[in-house]
Amino acid sequence: MTTTWLPVAADSPFGIRNLPYGVFTTTEDPTPRIGVAIGDFVLDAGAVAQATGSDHTGLLDAANLNPLMAAGRAVWTTVRAEITAWLTDEAYRRDVEANLVPRQDAALHLPFEVGDYVDFYASEHHASNLGQIFRPDSEPLTPNWKHMPIGYHGRSGTIVVSGTEIVRPSGQRKAPADAAPAYGPCLRLDIEAEVGFVVGKGSELGSPVARADFREHVFGVCLVNDWSARDIQAWEYVPLGPFLGKSFATSVSPWVVPLDALAHAWVEPPARDVEPLPYLDDRGSTPDGLDIAIEVALNGHVVSRPPFRTMYWTAAQQLAHMTVNGASLRTGDFYASGTVSGPEREERGAFIELTWNGRDPVKLPDGSTRSYLEDGDEVAITATAPGPDGTRIGFGEVAGRITPTRG
Amino acid sequence: MTTTWLPVAADSPFGIRNLPYGVFTTTEDPTPRIGVAIGDFVLDAGAVAQATGSDHTGLLDAANLNPLMAAGRAVWTTVRAEITAWLTDEAYRRDVEANLVPRQDAALHLPFEVGDYVDFYASEHHASNLGQIFRPDSEPLTPNWKHMPIGYHGRSGTIVVSGTEIVRPSGQRKAPADAAPAYGPCLRLDIEAEVGFVVGKGSELGSPVARADFREHVFGVCLVNDWSARDIQAWEYVPLGPFLGKSFATSVSPWVVPLDALAHAWVEPPARDVEPLPYLDDRGSTPDGLDIAIEVALNGHVVSRPPFRTMYWTAAQQLAHMTVNGASLRTGDFYASGTVSGPEREERGAFIELTWNGRDPVKLPDGSTRSYLEDGDEVAITATAPGPDGTRIGFGEVAGRITPTRG
């Protein structure tokens, strides 16, 4: 069992077997730099690399994770082993202690420069719920849904780190009974609790990436809140898909959990009841599902516990699908799972499903109810996954508060 | 009348009143650097700026246009005046002549780092044609089409410069009569002739950009070929829009024509037969349509002449719509008009429309016909717009040749 000489609680989400990467600043030193979360501290990774004469100083003494992410799987594993050594071998204790910042003193930033952002739609329960709500006269799942991980490109430039205020978007809406669309602040502002995958190693234009090469390309995992304006989305999305209903903001958690920290979290995905085409077929392979337990809290009150292990399509299948046409990957490309919704009501990852489009509002402990988000509401999504020796690997949180529309 | 002492043909697409920006290298100097097209030459703008002690050396002596684009409208106008002076005032002749490269000796590169890429759908003729082909049982235009410029995010990482080979994508297709989807190379590979707009100055998250501020944010214009795999697109696009049918490649012309070069090209857009919401309403304003005459050639034979002036939605309306929800702009964001198709058959900007999904193939001078593109086919899109004094402002070309699918 790996142990650190640092005082880290046994049930800390950021134990020695996690070591997620982020980018932080402090009041004393406003230079953005790479940090590693350990217990209640942030380790200044670049500073320790310099102090110890690490071979990887160039990758760790950087303003974001992109150089490290571009270096590829072998380097990721070596660097992780080196950071583990710093925290477990007393020989490094002096250099480490000189470069630890209490977590509450660290301001956390978007940890990587985002390339392209793709949002998938991989929960059968979510897709089926939304189909029933948006297209009540049709089959809830479109005919293609079980043949491919449906996805679309989102807006990279409005990906923001947890804690960024979310300005209520304005736009066009039109209920079926209205004669013409109206313009105004979104009236059905929602969340989508998702899991995000960060691409480290790129690929060549024209050459698909195989499902089996997922671990060579994906660096790590974080949490996502894909804020959604349901009234704007419902009016705009036919025929070219969601656009302004999503593009105003997507929040991500500040810590990227390396795939290597999730070795104990892999599980079989749900049984496929439609035979997948060979490039997506993962039957009989190493399981690519992930057992991530998510919690969604509104103003401090847990309203849902979506189980990521129920997702029909895996991140490895999504990567294979996204590149099967020869589309290249770049370091910093980011893709999200789609809303995580389990089969039960209290496992749904969006208010549109939790309240069935407002028909059955969520009750809060203060006696108020919510169909959708009000100004001032704060949503925080947290998650953990199984680690070794009964520990839990924490993802931290992605949180955001709604502020009134502008102008 | 502005004249240059350089030998430039009166009918050159790159006259003294154009001065488009690009990025080039030469065999002797493989450093990417900013060039300005003038006649049959490329002017090394950074080198001349250095030689003449320009105040804008920092913006022009750069590897791409992003620093100049970020500087904003006032600087764009000043820099353009300075480059005009270099080419018209004999005092600069020596410095200019030392830094001219024959255009055929310059390799041209993607001239800017792309932020987000949005593709619109702004031609009524195109949207109506595609609606009839993709959804024969419904109204061709969706109910929202005349209320907003419909658009979606595309893949920035696969935007390539003219001349890049286009590898035929593979993917899933399923005709309505097929029992299950099949995987294989695209059988209906198509083009979309479009006009692209490059964002220079960014904007703040949460604050919309007004239609009237278009010229403050948009730096220039280029040509786009939004390659499209119609069979992949038809099977995947419901409900979240086009994804792999588009994301394998989008080609752009290497020269960005500054808005200042298009002063004589503005025209009234078509009459709006549905009253636009105030943020889109341009009735009575300075005209925001652009009179750009496009030609599409397949293997050297012109197959279509799409007229950009017929586009229902303008680039200014698209910018206002794209940000009305508070989505921010970044330097390098890029958006394309959507396929330019006029009312006549020979004005359609995609083969799916020109051949009505293969029912009426295009005949080529060599006796062959095309429903869609074959391996080895080359498509080149060129365009010009009115300049001052009877001149034409040229956009150069966006060209690409199809190569066989890989793996």
TrEMBL record, chains A, B:
Please tell me where Mg(2+) binds in this chain. Answer: 226, 246, 250
What's its top-level EC category? hydrolase
List its EC numbers: 3.7.1.2
By its UniProt entry, which SUPFAM superfamilies does this protein fall under? Answer: FAH, Fumarylacetoacetate hydrolase, FAH, N-terminal domain
Q: Which InterPro entries match?
A: Fumarylacetoacetase, Fumarylacetoacetase-like_C, Fumarylacetoacetase_C_sf, Fumarylacetoacetase_N, Fumarylacetoacetase_N_sf
The alphabetized UniProt keywords are:
Calcium, Hydrolase, Magnesium, Metal-binding, Phenylalanine catabolism, Tyrosine catabolism
**Domain called Fumarylacetoacetase-like C-terminal: residue spans:** 118-399
Q: What is this protein called?
A: fumarylacetoacetase
Organism of derivation: Yinghuangia soli
What lineage is this protein's organism placed in?
Bacteria, Bacillati, Actinomycetota, Actinomycetes, Kitasatosporales
